[in-house]
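Final report, Chapter 2: Outcomes

The project's central promise was a pipeline that accepts a single protein chain and returns its three-dimensional structure in a standardized token representation, suitable for archiving and comparison. That pipeline is now operational. To close this chapter, we reproduce one record exactly as it appears in the project archive, with the input sequence first and the structure output second.
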Amino acid sequence: MDLPRWWIGVLVFSFLANFSSAENVIVPGATWTDTSGNVIQAHGGGFLKVGSTFFWFGEDKSSNDLFFHAVSCYSSTDLINWSRQNNALTPISGTMISSSNIVERPKVLFNKKNSEFVMWFHSDVSGYKSAMVGVATAKSPCGPYTYKGSWKPLGKDSRDMGLFQDAAQTSYLLYASDNNQNFKIARLDADYHNVTTVVATLSGSTLEAPGIIKRNNAYFLFASHTTGFAPNPNKWFQSEFVSGTWSAQSDLATPALNTFFSQNAFDMPLGSNGIYMGDRWRSTLLGSSRYMWLPIDFSSGKPKLVQADVWSVNIGAGTFSVAKGTTFEAESGTLAGGAKLLTDSGFSAGKGVGFLGKGGTVTINNVQGNGAGQWVALYYANGDSTWRSATVSVNGGSTVTVDQPNTGSGHVILSVPVKLNLRSGANSITIASNQNTFAGDLDKITVYTQG
């Protein structure tokens, strides 16, 4: 059988990936590296499955600014280990996709009629004053894509956007319009190069960052509200038809958690459930924004995000499994320096440890290790309006630093992951040693054997 040249390249990358250090779990909020060991740069991502291979398209933010540097393209057969391919789209001077313009949220569909891959994206200028879509096409998943142009769909604004393709290959643009006040769904033409008509409008909804999953005979729309890079409680809506009447909004997770400090980017079906693929944006250092992927549980008939520090996915079976760890309460550790016990109903056992850093530490003893790298989740509260960080040391060794986004309140608890090398047997983990700033208030840590 003759294979297309682009497919041969993907097979080579997949073959080489088998000889690299492979992960077997998804760790939301962790630094995610590709099979070459480089941090994955694919923010605001879109996903497409071709055969048994997934392709991940996203914004390369390695320069830590808003401007367009590349739409990256990664491939994977397991959604965990990703190989970087050639860039799918790169700047063209003198156009709306120059390096002084903005290209965000790339999404790709395959058009069977033309045997063509079609990319849509939010196309804009500095200050987000143009509010356009852009379209590019290619004959292979990673392209490179040929830019076709940017415009306002049907003459109206389009900012944060997504795409949805139904089983019959009818496809739709999902987009924030009218200065982000109204959310619209427009049908694409037969070539997927433009839109033909608006089929649904959620007036006054102030929604962006959309995605749709169809489950059984219902459509579920996921989206955030419009708070820039700051997180908010993402919502879901239900309808019998894409062009039908959509339900009132419902929360995807506990509202105070602000969707585990993330914003929706893409939503993928997984058997009878799904996967929420979001971004944990860091506006002051965009290239260090992390990916928050979490299972969407439909077992009740309604979608709900599953809190998971570490989890795995079985693509063939269409299932997910959340890892179980061993939890150590912070207040049971050994306090030193200025560290103090705190009492708050937000903590898992009503108590935690604060004033960590600037001499204050807490050491958690008798943590059993397996002699290999293990994921550890730090549960903390950070009531500041900015991020904090915490140092972590094992058995008195060198420290690693873990970023701690603001949790919105000192009563709200989030978790952040860190990978630690624990020796086989008992270990001591110290939080905030040699730290000149204050860390978040520590509720507990959970230690996992996976990783």
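Archive annotation: Confidence is low (pLDDT under 50) at residues 11-20.
This record, like all others produced under the grant, will remain available to the consortium after the project formally closes.
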